[in-house]
Amino acid sequence: MRHEIWLAALTDELRRHGIGPDLAAHVVAEAAGHLRDSGEAPLRAFGPPSAYAAAVADSVGPLAVSSAVGPVRLRAVDIRKRYGRRTVLSGVSLTLHAGQVAAVVGANGSGKSTFLRICAGLAGADGGHVELHGTVGYCPQAGGTADFLLADEHFALIGAGRGLPRAAAQREGAGRAAALDWVPGDAQARHLSGGTRQKLNLVLAGLGDPDVLLLDEPYQGFDRGTYLDFWHEVWRWRDAGRAVVVVTHLLNQLDRVDVVLDLSAGSTGVAA
Amino acid sequence: MLDLCVLGLLARGDSYGYELAQSLQSAGLGTIQGGTLYPVLLRLQRSGLVTVYWREGGGGPARKYYTISAAGLAVVRDAASQWAAFAGGVGAILQERTAR
Amino acid sequence: MNRTMTIAEMTLRETVRRRGVLVLLLVLPLAFYLGRRGDHLGQSIRFVCLGLAWVLSAAALFVGSAARSLEPRLRLSGYATHQLFLGRLLALWTLGLALSTPYFLLIRFDQHDVRYGAIAVIMLLGVLVAPLLGLALSALLPRDLEGMLVLMTVVGLQMILDPAGNAARLLPFWFSREIGTYAIDHTSVGYLDRGLLHGAVTAGLLLVLVAVGFGVRLRRRPHVKIVGGLS
After folding, report:
1. What is the CB-side half-sphere exposure of residue C181 using CA atoms within 13 A?
2. How confident is the model over C140-186, as pLDDT tens digits?
3. What is the rounded CA–CA span in Å between residue C158 and residue C50?
4. Which of A163, A250, C91, C194 is most buried as measured by Cβ atoms within 10 A of its Cβ?
């Protein structure tokens, strides 16, 4: 009985680590066979499901980086920005194609969010220009939701902007929420926990399948499992030919992105 | 190291995970937990040194069997000769020391 | 149209869920009314109309501020600027009608010897102008507090200044005093005409202000060129 719980948890964790369903089924069946033959406790033989799933993911290697790069979706050229006498961005450039993920990294105050807001056209730039090809989904670090509205009403609201009928928007919202392990209920946004509100924020950014996704540290307050779900969602967007920019200060996913834009002092701030 | 031992065992004949774990134990390598062994097998499979197939077990559900590939056999042969040279070298040094 | 209506619907839903605010909105004009009812019936009508205009402006100010953080995202999702402010205005106008109706009925049955039709006109103009004023303030001023202070100043001046003076005509609710005189003191129709004109001009000016304020705040920055997406 306890085997089954552990095996179910393993199935979940494998999915979170981006293991395809076929391989996951094989890994689980093999582990089940081993437990049956040896009569050992799963935790003793394999350790926690998350750790074993991580080891499996390491063994099969990083997801194949898609070699088929599509047309340019985002081109930011020589972006400059000052706040008063302080220069935040001095000539930052980034080119991103369909089917690519870019990570924008750098210390606090290095202008990561500012750069993203400039790309989205939400903040002005003192120099340079941005070309966006297609529709844009933007997920702010905080805010971006209406306190007194339910999740479903948010889906309808953003969906209407994208030209989605209400029922379709709500169906899509529920599906994207499920991918983040969240079932939106009858709670107003102000009653959601910080992490759950960020899930709502992220779902709203992806609603209507925009061509370019600009995500500003959207995982604040996520637990570890949801954090992995989030990156899984990012890979899915990439595989679907979207261009994704993620502002992040966490470096452990950098080996799996296509472009890294480092805004730390001293770095060139150019990525193509 | 464990990769090589597993390959060596598979060079003797096809096997499945639990059997391999037992063989490793009886060869004096201690208890190898499933959490260590299976990722090694996945790595070997990915690098093409072993291939796999599923076979119905005695009464139970299907088991995943591993077969060493030609590339795997080549690796084992190479490793065996290198190991023999290495072990010979180390042995010679150690014996020289005890002989003094 | 669908987008404007969606904004209107969601604004109404949000507002209706703020129970405490709704109760205050409903009760405050009543306090204005009852405050002068004992000594001067006509004055209580003038005050209740100003009270309604004031709470509606305040409600619009807060609706505008609350939506601030969401609006850039709505713009990016495909909403045009005019859809955003027209949707909010539609919701506020609906709310205004709902709030004013009970007060009109109160006056209808509590007061005698006044022109009810003219009082209805004051209330309708108030419902039209007050949300425009509140939304314009929310678009032009950085925070709630500044907007609230301006609103209090406007309404305070409205009560203090002699309506016959020229300065008073610059205030947004001067039409309320002018038509009020026509309704209560049975003056000539000139008062009604001047009031109507003032209300219409005020509404037009404020609408331009709202459109410009929203347009500047939610403008597409010149450094961004969008190819093949939303306009």
Report:
1. 17
2. 988 889 999 999 998 888 888 887 888 888 999 999 989 999 999 88
3. 8
4. C91
Q: Nearest chain A Cα to B22, which residue?
A: A38
The whole-angstrom distance between A67's CA and the closest CA on chain B is 19
pLDDT at B98: 63
Which chains sit next to A, with 3 or more Cβ pairs under 8 A? B, C
Tokens of B36: 């260590």
Q: Which residues contact C209 (CB under 8 A, 6 or more apart)?
A: C132, C136, C139, C140
Ranges of beta strands (E only) in chain A are 72-83, 86-97, 101-105, 127-133, 136-139, 212-216, 243-247, 259-262, 270-271
* Of A177, A179, A215, the residue nearest A196 (C-alpha): A177
Q: Select from B28, B31, B47 the least CA-distant residue to B39.
A: B47
CA–CA distance, C84 with C89 (Å, rounded to integer)? 9
Whether chain A has a CB inside 8 Å of the CB on C226: the answer is yes
pTM value is 0.72
- Write down the residue that tokens 């995500």 correspond to: A215
Record: contact A134-C225, CB cut-off 8 A: no
Q: How far is C140 from chain A (nearest CA, A)?
A: 18
**DSSP E strand stretches across chain C:** 224-227
Residue with token string 């040094």: B93
Number of neighbouring beta carbons within 10 Å of residue B92: 10
* Beta-sheet pairing, A101-105 with A270-271: unpaired
SS3 B50: strand
C142: left (phi over 0), alpha (psi -120 to 50) or beta: alpha
pLDDT in tens, A15-27: 877 777 778 888 8
Which value does ipTM take for this structure?
A: 0.89
Residues B6-16: tens digit of each pLDDT: 888 898 888 88
Whether residues A208 and C77 touch (CB distance < 8 A) is answered with yes
Q: Which residues of A touch C77 (CB under 8 A)?
A: 137, 158, 161-162, 207-208
> Best of A158, A188, A198 to disrupt the C interface by mutation (most C CBs within 10 Å)?
A158
